[in-house]
What we know:
Mean pLDDT: 78
Shape: globular
Structural class: alpha+beta
Amino acid sequence: xxxxxxxxxxxxxxxxALAASRPRYGGELRVAHAGPPEVGEPALADTPMEAALLGLxxxxxxxxxxxxxxxxTLARELTRPVPQALRVAxxxxxxxxxxxxAWTRLSSTESPSPYRALLxxxxxxxxxxxxxxxxLDLALAFPWPDLERSLCHPALATPPSPTSGPFSAAGxxxxxxxxxxxxxxxYLDRLALTATDERGLTRLWAARxxxxxxxxxxxxxxxxxxxxxxxxxxxxPRKVPADFRQAVESAIDREDLTRLFVKGPAVPMANLxxxxxxxxxxxxxxxxxxxxxxxxxxxxxxxxxADQRAVAERIQVKLHDQGYTVALEPQSRAALRSRxxxxxxxxxxxxxxxxxxxxxxLAVVLEAGxxxxxxxxxxxxxxALTDAAPRCAKPRTGPGARPFRAAHPAVRPGAxxxxxxxxxxxxxxxxxxxxxRGRLAGPCGSLGWRRKTxxxxxxxxxxxxxxxxxxxG
Length: 473
């Protein structure tokens, strides 16, 4: 949350037509926030707070407004010379090379990012992106009308550099405005950022040492924008007992978990995608599985997220009643993503900032669930729909569940399938070195929650119009 009427000045850029009414340029704004002191790799800075801070220093090639229209930011122009190709014109050859390297790095063999799925419609699955001079020519393997909007995701931004964003770093916690930013120079001359915790925010505000706060508890739990920051519980079926899913489903109540252990506003998520992208269909919780011998499992979670620690501790308590001893293992986000890609885990809490479009959001979740093989099954039929409304509805009602039920015959059609891959179906994970497979067991494995936040465009660009709902959805 942003506390202060001055918040609108943080990134607001000038427009000549509004010169008569705009505030005067200049000045320093003191901002306190509950994020990390420094934000680095865009593909890992995907919490709403980190994406907002990152948007001060770097941007993706474009931003999408509330109506779904795409506007270039870092790029000079995005055009389609032919329907099956997108041309991205950058300011310089150096910026084009940096962008191509950043996108190629998403598919690195050491730690592939789930956001590489946003480039899957490109030829070669987006594994190798190259530039020619100041231009990137992106050829599509199949029709994908949502490509431009997918490229607006903040995880596809280039690493911060002196020319990549509206502000540039000028010392620890100090950002100075770039007078030559293509969208217009920021009104402010500089931002003085202070990283702290919630108590620190309260103390600094009470002492009038800051003018804007980011990350303060909201006055109410009312959602003011589309909730797109989704958290899932992933598990490896070959490393946990066969009745583990039933034990989780019967022990955990999503509503209680969201209301009591997640900072609001947040909503529970009963299906693969959040309510803004997929209608939620509640299902009855199963009965408790028969008692067995005590079993030990390890739950990894993001050490930087207090919400995940609270949820992990609650899972630990609830599964104890089911005969499980759950060891908690805090990890860095980079380590979590690497382990998830390898299938090197038993249980894991994973959170992603999803695009505000059902098709690309489905792609990210399939990738995160280790079912990259299903991208070639699910995405082409979605991209073949030229009209936006049917294309947005396809991931909700299309054939997504059928391949999953075929791939997991043990999941009865009438049963609640494990979520994490497919229209509403289960997500099996990537085979690991030892043949282990990970499965996204429901949005937070029957514990999914959705945190209120801005859309990816809004998280990276607080000056953009707030999206009360996705343009299609």
